[in-house]
């Protein structure tokens, strides 16, 4: 039924609902014209056209993905080209390498980049800043214990920088931002991702 609705109304886009700001992403995706749904199990992952990996705590999300039997299915779908968008902790999970991983922390991969966790500082150093994103335009970026991208491979397109550091990237069907667009009321990045999912479909 959801698939039929997705065909009529827009692509069916899941939000990985293991931990993090799931509700805000669901609302932003709906505003952007997608049919949003939560994803916690492999069968739910198999049903969606694209997936958002939200912000949260990247180590906790990694461990929960293992616990719920989601890590390998996530890796497989991303390898197979499913459109995926990671914000903040989601950016870390889409990296091929973390500079300073916590013990037992794993990634899904999908973007040829090396990232640094909590690079912009701790929770009390959170801030908002204007970020000019290629293909979208200026957006308000909310940075909460945000990572940054230390380096990217040749196939990765840098979409935005802040303070001399890369904070938004794209490689094929994988998109990632170090900041939280779902917290601002500006849903153009979710619209951008929804169009990526439509194009892939």
In angstroms, what separates the terminal alpha carbons? 18 Å
**Overall pLDDT:** 92
Q: Please summarize the sheet with the most strands.
A: 7 strands, mixed
Could you name the ranges where pLDDT drops below 50 across 5 or more consecutive residues?
A: 1-7
Count of distinct strands:
12
* Shape label: globular
Q: Helix share of residues? A: 25-40%
Instruction: Work out the strand percent.
Output: 25-35%
Count of alpha/pi helices: 7
Biggest β-sheet: strands ordered side by side in the sheet: 2-1-3-4-12-11-10
Structural class by secondary-structure content: alpha/beta
Radius of gyration: 15 Å
List keywords for this structure.
single chain; 201 residues; 7-stranded mixed sheet; 3-stranded mixed sheet; globular; disordered N terminus
Overall description:
This protein has helices at residues 2-9, 22-31, 42-47, 58-67, 71-79, 89-94, 188-200, and strands spanning 12-16, 35-39, 50-53, 84-87, 95-98, 111-116, 127-133, 137-143, 148-152, 157-162, 165-171, 174-177. It is an alpha/beta fold and 201 residues long. The strands form three sheets. A seven-stranded mixed beta sheet has the order 2-1-3-4-12-11-10. Strands 5-6-9 form a three-stranded mixed beta sheet. Strands 7-8 form a two-stranded antiparallel ribbon. Residues 1-7 have low confidence and may be disordered.
């Amino acid at each position: 039924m959801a698939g039929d609705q997705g065909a009529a109304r827009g692509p069916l886009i899941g939000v990985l609902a293991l931990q993090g700001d799931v509700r805000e992403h669901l609302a932003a995706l709906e505003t952007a014209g997608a049919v949003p749904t939560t994803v916690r199990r492999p069968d739910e992952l198999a049903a969606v056209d694209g997936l958002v990996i939200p912000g949260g705590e990247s180590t906790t999300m990694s461990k929960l993905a293992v616990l719920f039997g989601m890590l390998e299915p996530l890796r497989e779908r991303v390898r197979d080209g499913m459109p995926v968008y990671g914000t903040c902790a989601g950016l870390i999970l889409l990296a091929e390498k973390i500079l300073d991983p916590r013990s037992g922390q794993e990634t899904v991969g999908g973007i040829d980049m090396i990232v640094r966790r909590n690079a912009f500082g701790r929770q009390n150093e959170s801030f908002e800043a204007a970020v000019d994103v290629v293909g979208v335009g200026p957006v308000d970026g909310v940075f909460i214990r945000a990572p940054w991208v230390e380096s990217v491979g040749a196939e990765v397109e840098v979409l935005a920088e802040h303070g001399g550091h890369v904070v938004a990237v794209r490689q094929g069907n994988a998109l990632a931002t170090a900041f939280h667009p779902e917290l601002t009321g500006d849903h153009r990045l979710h619209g951008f991702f929804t169009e990526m999912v439509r194009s892939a479909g």
